[in-house]
């Protein structure tokens, strides 16, 4: 199974990116996770959506080929970061490559609430845009105080979080059999 990770932060030391990398390594025998780079994506512009730049074509192709999308996001100003909204804008138009694609949502923040508002909004958005992109029910992953759970090498060290992720990924793999 091929899954693409769409991370709502483009900073190099992003904790959410580090979570994605930990998932990629820990469950490598269960699915192939490719972490997509949102950095080269231009701002969505309807004027160029029919003939978009190479970066958009490549990004959409990766999502189209995937069996599922793993969204991992921080919270910016009580909602999803602009880079994530921008990525969804590109994905939701023209050939609508997210159509029918199953999703799983996770996120982290340095605060205690683990990007809960961003994730709630993302669930809402994926439902509301009508692309028939089902989100794994339940299994909400709010990783708070993330800076205390990842070491200097980027390794997720918090045992409770690791055990919780093991359960969520097992549920995700079981749920994916339906598609
Ligand atoms: C934040 N941060 C933040 N955190 C939170 O829990 N709720 C919020 O509304 C916000 N708002 C916010 C706005 C902006 C512009 C920034 C830059 C940051 C903190 C944020 O969650 C924290 O910086 C994360 O570590 C960012 O995720 P990455 O880049 O580490 O993945």
UniProtKB/TrEMBL annotation:
Signal peptide: none annotated. InterPro entries: Flavoprotein-like_sf, FMN_Rdtase-like_dom, NAD(P)H-dep_reductase. It holds the Pfam family FMN_red. It comes from the Bacteria. PANTHER family: CHROMATE REDUCTASE (PTHR30543), NAD(P)H-DEPENDENT FMN REDUCTASE LOT6 (PTHR30543:SF21). Belongs to the azoreductase type 2 family. It comes from Solibacillus kalamii. This is NADPH-dependent FMN reductase. Residues 1-147 form the NADPH-dependent FMN reductase-like domain.
């Amino acid at each position: 199974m091929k899954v693409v990770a769409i991370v709502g932060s483009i900073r190099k030391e992003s904790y959410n990116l580090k979570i994605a990398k930990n998932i990629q390594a820990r469950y490598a025998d269960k699915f192939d996770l490719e972490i997509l780079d949102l950095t080269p994506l231009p701002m969505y512009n309807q004027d160029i959506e029919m003939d978009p730049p190479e970066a958009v074509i490549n990004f959409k192709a990766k999502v189209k080929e995937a069996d599922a999308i793993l969204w991992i996001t921080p919270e910016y100003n009580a909602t999803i970061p602009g880079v994530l909204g921008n990525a969804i804008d590109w994905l939701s138009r023209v050939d609508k490559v997210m159509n029918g694609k199953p999703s799983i949502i996770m996120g982290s923040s340095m605060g205690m609430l683990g990007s809960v508002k961003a994730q709630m909004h993302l669930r809402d958005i994926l439902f509301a845009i009508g692309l028939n992109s089902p989100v794994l029910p339940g299994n909400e992953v709010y990783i708070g105080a993330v800076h205390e759970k990842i070491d200097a090498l980027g390794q997720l060290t918090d045992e409770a979080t690791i055990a919780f992720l093991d359960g969520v990924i097992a549920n995700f793999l079981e749920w994916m059999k339906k598609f």
